[in-house]
Specification:
The complex is a heterotrimer of chains A (169), B (421) and C (259). Chain A has 169 residues and is an alpha+beta fold. Chain A has 4 helices and 10 strands. In chain A, a hairpin with a 4-residue loop joins strand 5 and strand 6. The N and C termini of chain A lie far apart (69 Å). Chain B is mainly α and 421 residues long. Helices cover 65% and strands 1% of the residues of chain B. Chain B has a two-stranded antiparallel sheet. Chain C is mostly helical and 259 residues long. Chain C has a single domain, classed as Orthogonal Bundle (Cytochrome Bc1 Complex, Chain D, domain 2). Chain C has a two-stranded antiparallel sheet with strand order 1-2. In chain C, a hairpin with a 7-residue loop joins strand 3 and strand 4. Chain C starts with a helix and ends in a 7-residue tail after the last helix. Classes of the chains: A alpha+beta (169), B mainly alpha (421), C mainly alpha (259). Chains B and C meet through helix 4, helix 5, helix 10, helix 14 and helix 17 of B and helix 1 and helix 7 of C.
């Protein structure tokens, strides 16, 4: 008899605690979620770039989602060099064809995959990019060749709207 | 502060507690002997703590998105309301939270007035409470300026201009407050800074308020001194915690109703119009919780005297422990005081009502009578009442009027152990 | 306990009553049934879409809505145009952008992320074009007027010939719901002014209702989720309160004192 009574008491207190905990969790969530990107930030997903004035062998840098995007018009020599690299020599093996759909244009997020600095153009041991912060060397396809960065520089989603315009995002 | 020595059971606990006695403090708070006859009016202390924490947390969140600049403040508030995830919810909680905070603080103050909680030996608790109340008004006023709507702007203009009533230096002080020749961007940024600071000052004072409370212990509806701990008290945890929790939940239901269903009813429509220094709204009305003081201010025809009257109405409360000469605390045993108490409640409500109405004709007359009575209550009625009033016989212990018998503490302990099992 | 509850409720009611009593001017507004009022109130999608049409075709030549973006038109809880429709709406507006690589400003078709295009560059330009009166931005207009939706709804239908003895200046009109009865906006609505795509008869009353609904949504875009969340929150709170109440009874029963 007394045992049964105890059970019911336990149930009441446990239920109260459990229901209370659900409410606390539900209250905390908005306070956390408010720090995520808001609706206006999410809406600014894409940007269009006119690349008609970029000559071969030149890079332009544009801002997309607050980060630099490198758009390089590569020379035939650079394309040949990028394609000639054996995948075995790469820390993060990726074919150049997969990184630049149109081999003349390399569109890539200009952010070092180590800790987020912006690498310098046409510097380093591989004629590509060199990150001055901690010495990561990238080749002309933006692939990591030497240094602490773990992966190749990221390729954003992009498309050619027409021959002269690239839409990023 | 410690009524008895506490030794933690675990070895680490003991090691830690010898260096920083947090466990002793926690033990003091849970075991704190509380009069067991506290009624629901006593739960507003806990409710106010909840209000303060809610305002601080939601305020911190809003500060992450708000921009304190005259050109962007209004836009950033709309950004919060539209785009920030749950921004509308957090802002409505903060805006209505201010009103709920004042609702609770007024109940808390009037509870204290009814049961004589301000009397010896609790004068310091009371005075700290008045300071907290003043800071709350300052924080609420400055917070209302931040959305930079028409009421924000003109409210700030009117209230800061009160200081111009000070002879000689008034104009200089107002210019200094503004950081310019009118309420403008410098005013907004400094109000934001102070609005951010004050809640933490309040938090510190709340700690002192509770500390000072824990020295003599709680007053109670009977208003007599009790032995602690004794058969008249219960440990704070779980008895008072669960009771405060129950009352808090009912309070939150009312709060939630405002937030979710009538979030703008306590505000003023004009504050959704961006501040415009060229146009004053037709009626400038402060938030409801400041209306009684606003009525007092307007009831005095002289500028300086009006300001003095308004400030005195608040500061007179600090002198209350000495103005009330009665030895009996609780109004339960003071038949005459009880009647005057309810007249005062009505008086303050009337002041609040006429504060919202235009200052003319009958309203002005009522405001003047009510203002006069307000001061009369504290300066004349209370001191005389203490000597003249024939009070009812007071009981010797709490248990006497409530139960007519002593509670069986041994039985309670026994039941408690059953519950925990 | 009973005493406490009674007084507490009374205070809350008094508070609400007192606020209500001074919130609005004492004018009897025209009444209509708003779908978004009440505990479960939701917007009427079709009315919102029609209201948007009235706004674009009638109001937007003078009134800006600077806090709204075209993407809002496709968002949940709003008019809920399809994404393709919203994109088409956005693209039908010319948006000023720039500077481009040459440092020049240029115009391009609008995108979802763009704010509603404003009819005037700034407040001064708006005043200059409207005889000194600034047509207020309508993003939060409903919340910025004491009578709210009822006021706007009535105002749109409140144009009358001035009573005898009231003299009106040039460019000032008589409206029985306007504060002071004098308004600088002429009567904008007339039966059949717009042609609704869904075949609804565009009477003045219908258009007033639709555009006011649209303005309500514009001012309170999260109203639907607020109502939904509020209902859940209050049901939850009541359940928890009941649980805590019985826990409290149980705990206090240990010392046999009434709570």
């Amino acid at each position: 008899m007394s045992e049964k009574k105890t059970d019911r008491r336990d149930f009441l207190f446990t239920a109260t605690y459990a229901v209370g905990a659900v409410g606390v969790a539900a209250t905390i969530w908005p306070m956390i979620d408010q720090m995520n990107p808001d609706a206006s930030v999410k809406a600014l997903a894409s940007t269009e770039v006119d690349v008609s004035s970029v000559n071969p062998g030149k890079t332009i840098t544009v801002l997309w989602r607050g980060k630099p995007v490198f758009i390089r018009r590569r020379t035939q020599d650079e394309i040949a060099e990028a394609k000639s690299v054996s995948l075995q020599d790469l820390k993060h093996p990726e074919k150049d064809e997969d990184r630049a759909k149109n081999p003349e244009w390399l569109v890539m997020l200009g952010v070092c995959t180590h800790l987020g600095c912006v690498p310098l153009d046409q510097k380093g041991d591989y004629n590509g990019w060199f990150c001055p912060c901690h010495g990561s060397h990238y080749d002309i396809s933006g692939r990591i060749r030497k240094g602490p960065a773990p992966t190749n520089m990221e390729i954003p989603k992009y498309e050619f709207v027409n021959a002269n315009t690239i839409k990023i995002g | 502060m410690s009524d008895h020595q506490y030794t933690p059971k675990s070895k680490f606990g003991k090691w830690f507690n010898d260096r920083l006695p947090l466990l002793t403090l926690a033990n003091h708070l849970t075991d704190y002997p509380t009069p067991k006859n506290l009624n629901y009016w006593w739960t507003f202390g806990g409710i106010l703590t909840f209000c303060l924490i809610t305002q601080i947390v939601t305020g911190l969140v809003l500060a992450m998105h708000y921009i304190a600049h005259a050109d962007m403040a209004f836009d950033s508030v709309e950004h919060i309301m539209r785009d920030v995830n749950y921004g509308w919810l957090i802002r409505y909680i903060h805006a209505n939270g201010a009103s709920m905070f004042f609702l609770a603080v007024y109940i808390h103050i009037f509870r204290s007035l009814f049961y004589g909680s301000y009397k010896a030996p609790r004068e310091i608790i009371w005075i700290i409470g008045i300071i907290i109340y003043l800071l709350m008004m300052a924080a609420a006023f400055m917070g209302y300026v931040l959305p930079w709507g028409q009421m924000s702007f003109w409210g700030a203009t009117v209230i800061t201009n009160l200081f111009s009533a000070i002879p000689l230096v008034g104009e200089g002080i107002v210019t200094w407050l503004w950081g310019g020749y009118s309420v403008d961007n410098p005013t907004l940024t400094r109000f934001f800074t102070l609005h951010y600071l004050i809640p933490f000052l309040i938090l510190g004072l709340v700690v002192l308020h509770i500390w000072a409370l824990h020295v003599p212990g709680n007053n109670n509806p009977v208003g007599i001194d009790i032995q602690k701990p004794s058969k008249d008290t219960v440990p704070f945890h779980p008895y008072i915690v669960i009771k405060d929790g129950f009352a808090l939940l009912m309070f939150i239901i009312v709060f939630a109703f405002f937030v979710f269903y009538t979030p703008n009813i306590l505000g003023h429509a004009d504050n959704y119009i961006e501040a415009n220094p060229l146009v004053t709204p037709a009626h400038i009305v402060p938030e409801w919780y400041l209306l009684p003081f606003y009525a007092i201010l307007r009831s005095v025809p002289d500028k300086l005297l009006g300001v003095i009257a308004m400030l005195s109405a608040i500061f007179i409360l600090a002198a209350l422990p000495w103005l009330d000469t009665s030895k009996i605390r609780s109004a339960v045993f003071r038949p005459l005081y009880r009647q005057f108490y309810w007249i005062l409640v009505a008086d303050v409500l009337i002041l609040g009502y006429v504060g919202a109405m235009p200052a003319e004709g009958l309203y002005l007359l009522i405001a003047r009578v009510a203002t006069a009575y307000y001061f009369l209550h504290f300066l004349v009625v209370l001191p005389i009442l203490g000597f003249k009033e024939k009070t009812l016989p007071i009981p010797l212990s709490i248990t006497e009027p409530i139960l007519g018998g002593s509670p069986n503490l041994a039985a309670a302990k026994n039941k408690e152990s059953l519950d925990i099992k | 306990m009973k005493n406490f509850l009674g007084i507490f409720t009374l205070t809350a009611l008094l508070l609400g009553f007192q606020l209500n009593s001074y919130a609005a001017e004492k004018v009897e507004y025209l009444k209509t049934d708003w779908s978004f009022k009440g505990l479960f109130g939701k917007f009427d999608r079709a009315a919102l879409q029609r209201g948007y049409q009235v706004y674009t075709e009638v109001c937007s030549s003078c009134h800006s809505m600077k806090y709204l973006s075209y993407r809002n038109l496709a968002e949940k809880g709003g008019p809920e145009f399809s994404e393709a429709q919203a994109k088409a709406i956005a693209a039908s507006f010319e948006v000023k952008d720039g500077p481009n690589a040459d440092g020049d400003m240029f115009t391009r078709p609008g995108k979802l992320s763009d704010k509603f295009v404003m009819p005037y560059e700034n407040v001064k330009a708006a005043q200059a074009a409207n005889g000194g009166a600034y047509p207020p931005d309508m993003s939060v207009l409903v919340k910025a007027r004491g009578g709210g939706v009822d006021y706007i709804y009535s105002l749109l239908q409140g144009y009358e010939d001035p009573p005898a003895g009231v003299k009106l200046d040039e460019g000032v009109y008589y409206n029985k719901y306007m504060y002071g009865n004098k308004i600088k906006m002429s009567n904008q609505l007339s039966d059949g002014l717009v042609e609704y795509g869904d075949g609804t008869n565009a009477t003045v009353e219908q258009m007033s209702k639709d555009v006011t609904t649209f303005l309500m949504w514009a001012a309170e875009p999260h109203l639907e989720s607020r109502h939904r969340m509020g209902f859940k929150a209050i049901v939850y709170l009541i359940i928890l309160t009941i649980l805590v109440y019985f826990s409290m009874k149980r705990i206090w029963s240990r010392i046999e004192t009434k709570v």
